[in-house]
């Protein structure tokens, strides 16, 4: 049978509105997923519905309001831009590109149906999580599988499990830093801040933290940075257990207390800018650094739909084509 290939970009999901109600709906779905929170089910559901979903949505809605774009959530805005740019880049090969979220809209089922309508019978699924974790990539896989449960004809599927050490990805990250430095000058240190996960997961075989360290080392090597000029750290700790260290906020506080001059921060686990970069890194962590005594703080944007990133994503998809056709 002849193969008609389509691409499915997958990201996490995001609230539809920056309101308490909408954030509650998003957090309820996301945090109920046993892939994301794997503590005993009954205890967790009591904590989630009894405490977290009563308090957190209002607080987090305010944070979303501080970064919301005219056309919606930043994560959705940049994900749409990526979809559009990649679909233009692959148009001459007749490869359509759709976008789906693990949680919420656009759903895997909607995106899959749209690809099917365009005659696609083989999907290259590209989760936009450069490093593989059960909590992000694994959850995306489950969501895709669930969406296919009622499907009478399951298409061919190529699953891109991660791209943490892909030379094109490392080049795109390094180029985004050098381009930023060329325009705005450079800091004394580069902090590479990755979304955190519980420390325990590494022992369970989750490759995420190890892959983050590899990404960071490769970017540092590409930029010619020596030890002491860069560090990999982990942000967004949630709950009481220990997460992978060092923590981004504690690191910045300590660097501020040591009266460091300028620090630059990149976020190589985020394909697009979102709450965790635009609010947590760019606003909250800057405050931590400056209030502790640090001088200057620059956040270098995520790759988003920049030309090098789209070129890289195109190359990544193309690498899989010979095996499919
Ligand atoms: C147990 C909690 C969480 C784990 C594990 C986790 C892993 C994880 N998350 C991302 C990417 C994103 N997370 C985002 C927001 C976010 N993450 C958590 C919790 C965990 N994440 C929460 C509760 C939230 C919502 C905000 C909040 O309440 O603090 C986002 C941003 C979404 C947006 O709309 O902008 C992204 C992206 C990865 C890659 C990952 C594991 C590797
Ligand atoms: Fe998260
Ligand atoms: Fe956060």
UniProtKB/TrEMBL annotation:
InterPro entries: Ferrochelatase (IPR001015), Ferrochelatase_C (IPR033644), Ferrochelatase_N (IPR033659). It is found in: Cytoplasm. It is an enzyme of class 4 (lyase). Pathway: Porphyrin-containing compound metabolism; protoheme biosynthesis; protoheme from protoporphyrin-IX: step 1/1. Keywords: Cytoplasm, Heme biosynthesis, Iron, Lyase, Metal-binding, Porphyrin biosynthesis. Its main location: cytoplasm. Catalyzes the ferrous insertion into protoporphyrin IX. This is Ferrochelatase. The lineage of its organism: Bacteria, Pseudomonadati, Pseudomonadota, Gammaproteobacteria, Oceanospirillales. The gene is hemH.
């Amino acid at each position: 049978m002849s193969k008609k290939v389509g691409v499915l970009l997958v990201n996490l999901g995001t609230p539809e509105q920056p309101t308490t109600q909408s954030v509650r709906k998003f957090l309820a779905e996301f945090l109920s997923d046993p892939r994301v929170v794997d503590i005993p089910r009954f205890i967790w559901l009591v904590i989630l519905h009894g405490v977290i979903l009563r308090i957190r949505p209002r607080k987090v809605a305010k944070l979303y309001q501080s970064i919301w774009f005219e056309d919606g959530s930043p994560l959705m805005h940049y994900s749409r831009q990526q979809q559009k740019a990649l679909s233009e880049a692959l148009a001459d090969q007749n490869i359509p590109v759709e976008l789906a979220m693990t949680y919420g809209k656009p759903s895997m089922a909607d995106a899959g149906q749209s690809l099917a309508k365009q005659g696609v019978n083989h999907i290259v699924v590209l989760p936009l999580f450069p490093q593989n974790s059960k909590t992000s990539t694994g959850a995306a896989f489950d969501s895709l599988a669930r969406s296919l449960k009622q499907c009478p004809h399951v298409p061919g599927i190529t699953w891109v499990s991660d791209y943490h050490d892909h030379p094109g990805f490392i080049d795109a990250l390094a180029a985004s830093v050098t381009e930023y430095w060329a325009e705005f000058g450079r800091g004394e240190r580069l902090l590479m801040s990755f979304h955190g996960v519980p420390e325990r997961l590494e022992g369970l075989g989750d490759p995420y933290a190890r892959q983050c360290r590899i990404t960071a080392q490769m970017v540092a090597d590409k930029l010619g940075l020596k030890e002491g000029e860069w560090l990999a750290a982990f942000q967004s700790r949630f709950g009481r257990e220990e997460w992978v260290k060092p923590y981004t906020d504690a690191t910045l506080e300590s660097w501020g207390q040591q009266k460091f001059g300028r620090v630059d921060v990149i976020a190589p686990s985020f394909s697009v800018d979102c709450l965790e970069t635009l609010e947590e890194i760019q606003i909250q962590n800057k405050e931590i650094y400056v209030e502790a005594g640090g001088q200057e703080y620059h956040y270098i944007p995520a790759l988003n739909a920049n030309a090098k990133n789209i070129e890289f994503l195109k190359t990544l998809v193309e690498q899989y084509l010979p095996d499919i056709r």
